[in-house]
Amino acid sequence: MGGGTPDMFAESVSKLQDAWRAAGRDGEPRTMALFYFALGEDAERVAQESLGDYYGFLGDYAQQIVDSAAKDEQTVKGYLSAFEQAGADEVICFPASPEPDQVELLARAAGL
Predict the structure, then answer these.
(1) How many domains does the chain have?
(2) Which residues are within 8 A (CB) of 72 and not within 5 positions of it... i.e. 6 or more apart?
(3) Residue 71 in 3-state DSSP?
(4) If you ran DSSP here, which 8-state letter would residue 36 be given?
(5) 58 within some domain
(6) Residue range of the domain that includes 84
(7) Residues 48 and 108: beta-carbon distance below 8 Å
(8) Which alpha helices (H) appear in the chain, and where do they start and end?
(9) How far apart are CA 4 and CA 23, in angstroms?
(10) What pLDDT was estimated at residue 14?
């Protein structure tokens, strides 16, 4: 799942597993999720400009994407924990900012 919240992911996992089994596949599907983040002093502005502009063609839905981006350490930690609890095998943290310091800010927020 790309660009959604942990709650959205949790809701879709059972559908994925059902579709996997209906297709006659063995084992369990590998699950992945992606969420956007922007950290630091201007996180809200950066997310609004970057994600809002990129997804502007979606109209009002673009603001929902901006609003769902993790913009502080607490939200990053919460998202990572919630995705793990929901069964995500891998989580991609996608920066909404091109600034290299986002890597260090993310590592700190994730406790790495």
Answers:
(1) 1
(2) 39, 43, 109
(3) coil
(4) E
(5) yes
(6) 32-110
(7) no
(8) 6-22, 43-54, 61-68, 73-85, 101-110
(9) 25
(10) 86
CA 7 vs CA 3, 16, 62, 99: distances in Å: 12, 15, 18, 28
Structure token digits, residue 1: 């799942």
Please tell me the distance from the alpha carbon of residue 54 to that of residue 59, in angstroms, as a whole number. Answer: 11
Confidence of residue 8 (pLDDT cuts 50, 70, 90): confident
- Answer whether residue 22 is part of any domain: no
Task: Dump pLDDT digits (tens) for 15-29.
Answer: 999 999 999 999 999
Quote the tokens at residue 90: 């891998």
**Does residue 80 belong to any structural domain of this protein?**
yes
Q: Which two tokens stand for residue 63?
A: 């603001």
Q: pLDDT band at residue 58, thresholds of 50, 70 and 90? A: very high
Residue 42 Cα distances to 6, 29, 50, 86, angstroms: 24, 38, 12, 30
- Domain for residue 96, yes or no? yes
